[in-house]
Design goal:
By secondary structure, this protein is of the alpha/beta class. It has eleven helices and 13 strands. The protein folds into two domains: about 90 residues, Beta-Lactamase, CATH 3.30.450.370; about 220 residues, Rossmann fold (3-Layer(aba) Sandwich), CATH 3.40.50.300. Helices cover about 30% and strands about 20% of the residues. The protein is globular.
């Protein structure tokens, strides 16, 4: 009876795929095994499948109805963010060759910089360098390939922003969670674009502006306009790009001239390599527009601090950073 209830009253075969280590769920056609991406193991076939197109659409619509979307004959696709933050994309013939579905699961726990060190994403020296850039109110972009963990890293790096500061988040898919009480999130809709919301931040007196991911020329233009406006204490964003050179070429191809590129102080590149148990997500380069003269001294002090902050709760990590900064001798305060 439990199997019947799950199959017909909940989300069909997808109801059996809610384990914590399932990061992504995908189907490509009817009768083929549903695939799951398991954390640390990669893609795996399950013994579950959709056998009927009408039933596939019904299950997809059970997810999508919660956000006011649905697949119909006139609209054979749906792309939405579910209430728990997970992303769903589904498409059916004639728009595709098969009944395809992708669900990218929302991760509840937010990583701290210590988590990035433990899982090998970043070194102490790399985090010390980026922390300095955050303290010095610099504009930062994290580039990387798909699934490299760009947003997860950006979320962790916001632990270096003092808790009393005001953060304005602009995300198409709400993923970033900060413990700062004076933060506000803007989410684009069919009527209001991400570009418009990024420009809206200019009138919201933010200390920091965070743009989840920029993909389109108008979004990149809006991001650089906020950087050039010099508002607040820095703007941050993620984008696709496997290398620093590739990311910069992509920015230029979207209409950003060389003179405006000077607004970007730091470009961090993170890569996903390997597959399954050999897969790794790592920061592979940190690229300064102009490397600070006192950077080595700053890195040394911050490395020692980072060794001592091992909190896995993001708010407690922020609080610990604040205590260390407050206790730093005045003679060693950054310039």
């Amino acid at each position: 009876m439990r199997w019947i209830k799950k199959t017909y009253e909940e989300y069909g075969p997808l109801s059996f795929l809610q384990q914590e280590n399932v990061e992504e769920i995908a189907t490509v056609r009817l009768k083929d095994p549903i695939k799951v991406y398991l954390r640390g193991e990669g893609w795996k076939d399950t013994n579950l499948a959709f056998w009927n197109g009408e039933y596939f659409i019904n299950v997809v619509n059970r997810f999508a109805v919660s956000v006011g979307r649905r697949i119909t004959l006139k609209n054979p696709r749906v792309n939405a963010v579910l209430p728990d933050g997970s992303r769903i994309h589904a498409v059916v013939p004639p728009l595709s060759s098969g009944h395809a579905l992708t669900i990218r699961r929302f991760t509840v726990r937010r990583f701290t910089p210590w988590d990035l060190i433990e899982n090998g994403t970043a070194t102490l020296a790399q985090l010390a360098e980026i922390w300095y850039a955050v303290d010095e109110e610099m504009n930062i972009v994290i580039a990387g390939n798909t699934g490299s963990g760009k947003t997860t890293t950006l979320n962790a790096l916001l632990s270096f922003v003092p808790l009393e500061e005001r953060i304005v988040l602009v995300e198409e898919t709400p993923e970033i969670e900060v413990p700062h009480s004076h933060s506000v999130r803007l989410v684009p809709s069919d009527e209001i674009s991400m570009q418009e919301l990024v420009y809206d931040t200019l009138r919201m007196r933010p200390d920091r502006v965070v743009v989840g991911e920029v993909r389109r020329p108008e979004e990149v233009r809006a991001l650089f306009d906020t950087m050039l406006a010099g508002q607040g204490k820095g703007s941050y964003a993620t984008m696709h790009g496997r290398t620093a050179e590739e990311a910069l070429r992509r920015i230029k191809s979207m209409g950003i001239p060389d003179e405006d590129l000077a607004a970007l102080d730091l470009l961090v590149v993170q890569r996903r390599r390997g597959a399954g148990r050999t897969e790794e997500r790592k920061i592979v380069s940190i690229n300064w527009r102009e490397r600070p003269e006192n950077l080595e001294e700053e890195i040394s002090w911050r490395i020692e601090v980072l060794k001592n902050i091992r909190e896995k709760d993001i708010k407690k990590y922020c609080e610990a950073v604040g205590r260390w900064v407050a206790s730093r001798p005045p003679s060693r305060t950054s310039s």
